[in-house]
Structure prediction request, 446 residues.
Amino acid sequence: MSKVKVKLARKVLEANDTIASEVRSSLASAHVFALNVMGSPGSGKTELICAAAASDPVLATSCAVIEGDVESAIDGERIAQAGLEVIQINTGGACHLSASMIRDALADLVLSSLDLIIIENVGNLVCPASFDLGEDERLVCTAVTEGFDKPTKYPGMYAKAHALAVTKCDLAEAVEVDPHEIAGRARRVNPKLDVFFTSARTSAGIPKLIDRLHAAILSKKKA
Amino acid sequence: MSKVKVKLARKVLEANDTIASEVRSSLASAHVFALNVMGSPGSGKTELICAAAASDPVLATSCAVIEGDVESAIDGERIAQAGLEVIQINTGGACHLSASMIRDALADLVLSSLDLIIIENVGNLVCPASFDLGEDERLVCTAVTEGFDKPTKYPGMYAKAHALAVTKCDLAEAVEVDPHEIAGRARRVNPKLDVFFTSARTSAGIPKLIDRLHAAILSKKKA
Prediction:
């Protein structure tokens, strides 16, 4: 990158970090756990959120979703139909959510009534990794249909994540991709990753993911 | 976006456009047709290029591939194994190729021996759309495994493309996605799109895509 590009990128990221700290403080005061869900377009982020809501209606009542898309409200509508409170953000061309969008969305939520905020980022395996949104943790979704090699080709996304959901595992045989190969490559980038092998269709892996969310919510409440 | 961000983005794009014009001139002088292939991570761009090379060994001898990835040479190696000349670019974190990367790559190619340059962009359905690489045409790959709705959610990518390959069509039934729904949504964004329904596994749609490439190469030779 040219010097001017690098300098500006740093300025933009610094401004974002300042707002992300504000968001993090608001969430800490309200004891709300925030999860930033990222992954390629079509990696199954929305489907996983809907499957989790369907599996645990109690969790769903204390959860809101901030839904990020370049355009359209298709995903927001799917999440609302799953019974979750949802705030749809359209970035209007931008390739990632930024902390200021989250700050604005929080103003429309009653934090005291929530335990969990799920932020679904724009489908993109590169840019969202650089933008702190004030979240507690990051979950990357990677579908077996994307092939075995995404963590090796887009390491930045996996390096900064806390958990990985290998999604659409019911299709692993059809696409001849071993979900464990994806997990192994991701762990080579980030050995601390918690990995979940999921299928929104069969509900495989969803209960384990929900258990982890409950544990995270509980520890945030005690914090 | 903030004013400073917009101003800088414009500056970066203007600088890129200038270099793209240089690239376009070089390619015009050499009568080489250049295709910029874009799409999500795991949409099957590399696989489609390899399938085309396998179907038409004659085309393959006069074609070079400029392979863009954030990291790794996995795709470059696959393309080399398919018998194509390949130049691997690692963007080192950047989410798209830019014209200067193509200009540098062209310096390593003997243009007079080529009819066709295929540029495989970084897997990303947002950012690469904004960067002119000096190409003649753009081909977007969208896999049925990504769902039916990508053109509606990421319209910028489809609006600026010349052709769409709906890929992995052999999996359409397994994922319950109608390839024509993807095509219809893409054509609502861009009615002029040429659409190809392809499967690298069964070779469906590959001959039509190759016919189109030959026609484009021919018309570039006459230009």
Remarks:
- Strands of chain A lie at 33-39, 63-69, 85-90, 116-120, 137-143, 163-167, 194-197.
- Residues 100 and 119 of chain A are 13 Å apart (CA to CA).
- The two ends of chain A are 41 Å apart (CA to CA).
- The mean pLDDT of chain A is 95.
